Amino acid sequence: MHRRGLTKGDIVITAGGLGLAFACAVFPWYVFLNQDQFSPPEMRFSGNMTPGRPDASTVQPPLVMAPMTPDEFPVMELDLFATGTPGADEPREAVADQPFPGELPVYRLVHVANGRAMIEDDGGLFVVQPGSPLPDATTVASIEQREGKWVLVNSSGSIFTVE
Question: What is the DSSP letter of 133?
Answer without folding.
Answer: B
